[in-house]
Design brief:
Keywords: Membrane, Transmembrane, Transmembrane helix. Helix 1 packs across helix 2. The relative contact order is 0.08. The mean pLDDT is 88. By secondary structure, the protein is mostly helical. The chain has one domain. The N and C termini lie far apart (78 Å). It is built from two helices and no strands.
Length: 77
C-alpha cells in the first residue's frame, strides 16, 4: 500500500506535506503535458497551485516595493 493512499489526518505533518506536494506536481504536469485528457481534479489542483504561486508573488512584490507616503497638505481655497 502506498503511504499516500491513507487519509491525511492519519499521517505525520511532514509525510502529509510530501504526499500533497507529489499529487500537486503530478496534477500540474498532467495539465501541462496533455490538457485535453487531464481530469477535473488535476485541473483544480493546477489552478489552486497557480493561485498560491500568484499570492506568494504578490506578497514578495509588496514586501520589496518601496513604501510611499502621501503627504497631506492643507488645501488653500
Amino acid at each position: 500500500m502506498d503511504p499516500c493512499d491513507q487519509p491525511l489526518a492519519e499521517m505525520a505533518f511532514c509525510e502529509a506535506t510530501s504526499c500533497v506536494w507529489k499529487k500537486g506536481v503530478g496534477a500540474v504536469q498532467s495539465v501541462i503535458q496533455s490538457p485535453g485528457s487531464a481530469n477535473i481534479g488535476d485541473w483544480a489542483l493546477a489552478i489552486l497551485a497557480a493561485l498560491c504561486a500568484l499570492a506568494v508573488l504578490a506578497l514578495l512584490v509588496r514586501a520589496l516595493a518601496p513604501r510611499t507616503r502621501v503627504i497631506e497638505r492643507p488645501s488653500s481655497f
